[in-house]
Amino acid sequence: MTRALKDRVDVTKADITDDSGFSVLEALVAMAVLAAAMLPILALQSQFVRSVAVMERTETRLSVEAAVRAHIRSVNLTERPRGDMNMGGATLRWTASPALPERRVRAQGGVRSRYVTTLYNVEIVVNYNSGASEKLIMTGLGWTPTSSYLANL
Questions:
Q1: Number of independent structural domains in the chain
Q2: For residue 94, what are the β-bridge partners?
Q3: Residue 153 or residue 49, greater confidence
Q4: Could you tell me the residue range of the domain that residue 147 belongs to?
């Protein structure tokens, strides 16, 4: 039995000294090369994440700006030259000042209309919930009826 045990020990020594595998140094060098190859990919991924964040902020800003412009177009600036409004992700405040003097509107065929209109310069400050703010400038229209609708019938 001792001979069989001695043969097993010899086989085990042969397996340990076999040079067919990787050494620890070779594995560390392979890991370093792999890490160096992955660094540009990681930098590209972080740049992609930053670009997506910028695109999302820009998309939000543009949609809020479009909503603000649509709202100001619907306001009679002669009646409400100043105002503020909460729009979900932002709060807007506007101030309108006349750009031109009042002008009587003419209807079809040159007939005098019952409205007097004024063109306004509108300064809008949009304060986002994130703390950022921006200033928009646009023109708007204000109108005032000069007589009752029934007076022209």
A1: 1
A2: 83, 124
A3: 49
A4: 22-152
